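Annotated sample (chain length 162).
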Amino acid sequence: MLLLERRGKMTAPALAQELEVSVRTVLRDIEALSGAGVPVYAERGANGGFRLLEGYRSELAGPEAWSPLTASPPGRPRRGAVRISPEGRRMAAVLGVLQPLRVRSAIGAEEYGWLEGTFRLGPLERTAREVLSLGADVEVIRPEALRQRVADLALATAQLYT
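Output written by the structure step:
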């Protein structure tokens, strides 16, 4: 991802050579990145290759700044919780947001078909926008900071239309 971010378009063989892996491994990794929500796409043809969506920037500083995640930073939750409608669950899957979303029946909301779900938390701003992309089909339960940020963004959006 960093190579694509820094160099723009690269072919699978060029990525394989740079990363010292097989072309097949590069193709699997590109598929995994895409499945994880990274906006990577292929350009076909003689001058084709893989490219990140224009303007996309990852939150990675570079390989030298990477360290394995062994525990959550103190005070920062690793998972969020939401109440989500069946339609919201379908939209989350199609849009690839709040993934992986693990759901179970919501106490007191079964008659409406709503479920409670947990998901891996990303950066606050990105996660808040993912929640907003599902509209009224989702409600943040926790963490409170995410709930408040979603409320602030929703209010700002509503003020645009008044």
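Annotation: Helices lie at 2-7, 12-19, 23-35, 86-95, 124-132, 144-160.
Annotation: DSSP finds six helices and six strands in the chain.
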